[in-house]
Backbone:
């Protein structure tokens, strides 16, 4: 999260915003380090009320989409590992940037809403 | 090696498209296994939730990955178009399902609150019900509690935050403008204890409590406020008057407020505040069961233990009081307590209607199976044009879904439109707990039931359609021997069996209801009135005295139009404790009641032997006694009434001489007779009511009782009084509501069950005839007679019904044990009833198969054979 975002990637980051709440929750779960599927599932299901992550299937589909968008990636296991499918997932630099930008966006929204509500 | 749950999950994954499965299966199963282990560690509830979510997850993923969402509009159009082409079938199927689900919805809206729904109060899990239980070996809880208990619990049981009271039985108040208000009395803190707020105005306050009967404070029900007063705020400023009593409206109860009392008697228009007592609570008075709110963290066992201690102290403080009759208090969760008397009944009713839904499901499956067979050609054309198997299946299932959803929609609409009508046949006690059919929970239930039925009823023909041999289908091969409606007979057997069970249930309940209608209660209810003379306006008054009783008798008997009157201590309508010491000392159960002279004559109750008390005997508290027939049989078994006159009985006050044996009086319909010892009401041992005098009055035929005039006359002779008058006939009518509802419900259940069985049977028979047209043609050509063909088809259709009827009789026999508790003077296993039901069902089956069989017999062999 402390990495500096290069100006060239700002446009890329903006393209992914706003994140869906469940995608945001998955990225947030990975922000503390690489995790395997069941940990992500549990982290999201305990933090997001009425979580739409029902089980392995919905999680898998979401992770696949996030992988394809380049926001997360599998960690590389040691050389010669036959199957990398069980490898934990981790945030890519782009994913970290998008998460940070989305959190900032949410903060702005909340402060705007609270200032108007008063 | 996978464990069984993972193996099951893997099987389930077959729903997913193959490429996705190949790529993700290993990871999915691993995640599933890990998550399952963690859920298991958290307990059973977490594990169940996990399974529900996991299975749902596979379905959702399958729908999204297979892109069914996009294809859905097309498939739905196909299904609807194909249904539209056969309006007869569609109509029959929709109505079939609508009937099955509709009666379930109607009944569920009435009993949901008693069985599944949480109570509509705040933090309801901390609410408990406190009710007195008698001293018998099996303490059965009553709806009453000694009046000293609630205050003692508040002060002596630290686990209780507060205790409130709500008198369940409603009292109609006739206002000066002629309208009536049905109200119940409650303590000031009722809404606070229930954590319920008013929807307008304010709650009762401390200074609302008056010690005077004439100034009452009222909270209107939401329905009465909207319906009668048009949401007007004026109602708070303008008091309502009823004679000398003034009702001040201070607030409006929330919408759908449920009075927490196990003896609720219907919809109420409001709650009035009980009058404040000027004296400490009287241990001889019985109040209603109480509602307690426990402090957070206090469990039921602790609450019960605390109440037990309080009761011990109370029993020591008041040794000779009503407490000795209700020595223990049972603490129950409020919902259990409120519906204790109705819950078993609710389950019987639910089981009855669930049976109808089951018949409807089976019937729908039969209809779809027959339809699937007749649509094989269409399916074959679809396949030939390149439709995949899953597409053919989807169309078939979607047809079933469309039919079921249409049926559910129809059922909801009809139930909503007819809701008020439904409520008129529902027992009043259940009305106040009923919820509208438009309730989201009920609609959710209906839709889920519809979808489940659709999947079950549609999948069998769908599988059949997908497996179909395309070439044979296209050739329109009528001679195919593989064309039997496999599964059809089994469905008919099930349907007939369920039909027998439902019709037997109906026959038994209807007979029981009729028996109840025509039973002799032991008195004549027409022109009979129950009077309750309250002393003065304040709550606490001295006991009745002989001179008071004498003056009351003289005044009432001398009033215009009155044929006869007698003092009866809550004789007909009140409740009596069955563990009276006179009877328990003899190891029996029964009641002891104090009465005056002329009571039996006024009631129209025959004396089987001897005579009733004279007024003189009553005024002198003479040592005499009367028993009813049941008591005579219990005390002197094997004697006739005449022989026991003159016998002596030892009671609390000494030796009494028996002067009469009275006919048994059934207090309420279908209530067992109670052995009763009658003594003069003036006897020291007679259980007086401290604040009121009960009398029974018979009017001369054609005369009505002028209650206001009599009230004024009693005021003259006795001083200030409040008179309550109730017609005895109106009292017993509500008691017939429950059996009547049961009879109507089971009768309609049986009719619907029979109708469904007829449609199913007709569909199968008609299908069979259409399929075997060629065979019939050959048979007729080879010399079979038309009668023979007719008989052949009738036999074929009726055979599975016979098997079903036998199965049904066995089921009805077994289920009778549950029904027996709910019927009156009827044997639920009566062989004649079972025989009659079997005959009715077989006749119905013959009728349903008659038309198709006749059509088969009229087949023209030339036409059929030419079609070759």
Residues:
């Amino acid at each position: 999260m402390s990495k500096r975002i290069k100006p060239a990637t700002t446009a890329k980051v903006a393209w992914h915003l706003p994140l869906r709440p469940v995608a945001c929750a998955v990225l947030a779960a990975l922000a503390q380090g690489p995790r395997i599927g069941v940990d992500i599932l549990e982290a999201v299901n305990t933090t997001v009320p009425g979580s739409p992550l029902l089980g392995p299937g919905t999680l898998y589909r979401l992770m696949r989409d996030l992988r394809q968008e380049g926001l997360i990636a599998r960690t590389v296991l040691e050389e010669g590992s036959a199957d990398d499918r069980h490898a934990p997932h981790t945030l890519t630099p782009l994913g970290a940037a998008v998460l940070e930008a989305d959190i900032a966006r949410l903060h702005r929204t909340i402060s705007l809403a609270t200032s108007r509500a008063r | 090696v996978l464990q069984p749950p993972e193996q099951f999950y893997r099987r389930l994954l077959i729903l997913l498209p193959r490429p996705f499965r190949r790529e993700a299966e290993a990871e999915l199963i691993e995640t599933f296994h890990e998550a399952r282990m963690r859920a298991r560690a958290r307990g059973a509830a977490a594990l169940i939730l996990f399974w529900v979510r996991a299975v749902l997850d596979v379905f959702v993923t399958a729908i999204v990955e297979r892109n069914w969402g996009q294809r859905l509009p097309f498939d739905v159009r196909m299904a609807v178009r194909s249904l539209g082409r056969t309006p007869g079938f569609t109509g029959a199927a929709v109505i079939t399902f609508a009937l099955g689900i509709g009666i379930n919805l109607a009944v569920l809206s009435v009993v949901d609150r008693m069985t599944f729904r949480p109570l509509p109060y705040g933090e309801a899990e901390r609410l408990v019900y406190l009710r007195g239980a008698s001293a018998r070996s099996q303490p059965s809880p009553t709806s009453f509690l000694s009046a000293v208990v609630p205050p003692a619990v508040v002060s002596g049981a630290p686990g209780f935050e507060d205790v409130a009271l709500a008198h369940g039985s409603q009292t109609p108040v006739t206002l000066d403008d002629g309208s009536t208000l049905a109200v119940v009395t409650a303590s000031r803190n009722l809404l606070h204890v229930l954590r319920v707020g008013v929807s307008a105005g304010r709650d009762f306050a401390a200074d609302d409590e008056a010690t005077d009967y004439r100034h009452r404070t009222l909270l209107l029900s939401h329905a009465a406020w909207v319906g009668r007063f048009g949401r007007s705020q004026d109602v708070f400023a303008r008091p309502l008057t009823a004679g000398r009593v003034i009702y001040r409206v201070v607030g409006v109860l929330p919408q759908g407020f449920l009075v927490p009392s196990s003896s609720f008697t219907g919809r109420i228009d409001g709650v009035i505040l009980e009058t404040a007592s000027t004296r400490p609570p009287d241990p001889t008075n019985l109040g209603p069961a109480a509602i307690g709110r426990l402090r957070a963290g206090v469990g039921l066992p602790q609450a019960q233990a605390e109440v037990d201690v309080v009761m011990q102290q109370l029993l020591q403080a008041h040794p000779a009081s009503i407490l000795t009759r209700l020595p223990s208090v049972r603490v129950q969760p409020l919902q259990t307590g409120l519906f204790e008397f109705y819950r078993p009944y609710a389950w019987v009713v639910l089981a009855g209607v669930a049976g109808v839904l089951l018949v409807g499901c089976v019937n729908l499956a039969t209809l779809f199976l027959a339809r699937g067979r007749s649509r094989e050609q269409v399916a074959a054309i679809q396949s030939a044009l390149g439709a995949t198997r899953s597409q053919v299946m989807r169309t078939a299932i979607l047809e079933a879904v469309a039919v079921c959803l249409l049926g559910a929609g129809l059922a909801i609409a009809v139930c909503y439109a007819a809701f008020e009508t439904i409520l008129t046949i529902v027992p009043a006690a259940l009305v106040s707990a009923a919820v509208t059919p438009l309730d989201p929970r009920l609609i959710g239930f209906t839709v889920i039931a519809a979808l489940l039925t659709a999947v079950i009823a549609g999948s069998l023909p769908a599988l059949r359609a997908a497996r179909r041999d395309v070439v044979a289908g296209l050739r329109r091969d009528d001679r195919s021997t593989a064309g039997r409606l496999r599964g059809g007979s089994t469905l008919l057997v099930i349907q007939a069996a369920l039909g027998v069970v439902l019709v037997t249930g109906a026959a038994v309940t209807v007979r029981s209801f009729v028996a109840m209608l025509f039973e002799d209660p032991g008195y004549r209810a027409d022109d009979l009135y129950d009077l309750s003379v309250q002393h003065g306006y304040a709550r606490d008054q001295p006991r009745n005295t002989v001179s008071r009783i004498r003056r009351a008798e003289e005044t009432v008997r001398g009033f215009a139009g009155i044929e006869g009157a007698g003092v009866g201590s809550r004789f007909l309508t009140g409740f009596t404790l069955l563990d009276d010491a006179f009877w328990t000392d003899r190891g029996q159960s029964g009641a002891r009641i104090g009465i005056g002279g002329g009571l039996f004559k006024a009631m129209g109750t025959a004396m089987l032997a001897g005579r009733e008390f004279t007024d003189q005997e009553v005024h002198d508290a003479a040592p005499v006694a009367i028993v009813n027939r049941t008591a005579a049989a219990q005390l002197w078994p094997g004697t006739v009434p005449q022989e026991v006159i003159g016998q002596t009985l030892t009671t609390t006050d000494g030796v009494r001489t028996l002067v009469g044996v009275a006919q048994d009086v059934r207090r309420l319909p279908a209530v067992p007779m109670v052995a009763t010892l009658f003594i003069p009401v003036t006897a020291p041992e007679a259980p007086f009511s401290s604040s009121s005098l009960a009398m029974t009055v018979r009017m001369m035929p054609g005369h009505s009782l002028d209650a206001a005039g009599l009230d004024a006359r009693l005021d003259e002779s006795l001083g200030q009084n409040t008179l309550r008058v109730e017609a005895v006939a109106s009292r017993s009518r509500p008691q017939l509501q429950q059996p009547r509802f049961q009879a109507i419900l089971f009768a309609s259940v049986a009719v619907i069950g029979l109708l469904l069985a007829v449609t199913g049977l007709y569909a199968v028979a008609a299908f069979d005839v259409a399929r075997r047209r060629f065979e019939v043609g050959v048979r007729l050509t080879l010399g079979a007679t038309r009668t023979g063909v007719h008989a052949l088809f009738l036999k074929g259709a009726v055979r599975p019904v016979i098997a079903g009827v036998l199965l049904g009789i066995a089921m009805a026999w077994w289920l009778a044990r549950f029904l027996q508790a709910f019927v009156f003077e009827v044997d639920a296993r009566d062989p004649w009833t079972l025989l009659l039901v079997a005959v009715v069902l077989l006749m119905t089956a013959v009728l349903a198969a008659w038309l198709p069989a006749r059509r088969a017999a009229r087949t023209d062999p030339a036409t059929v054979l030419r079609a070759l």
Q: What stands out?
A: The CA atoms of residues 211 and 276 of chain B lie 5 Å apart. Chain B has a mean pLDDT of 81. The longest strand of chain B covers residues 654-662. DSSP finds 31 helices and 23 strands in chain B.
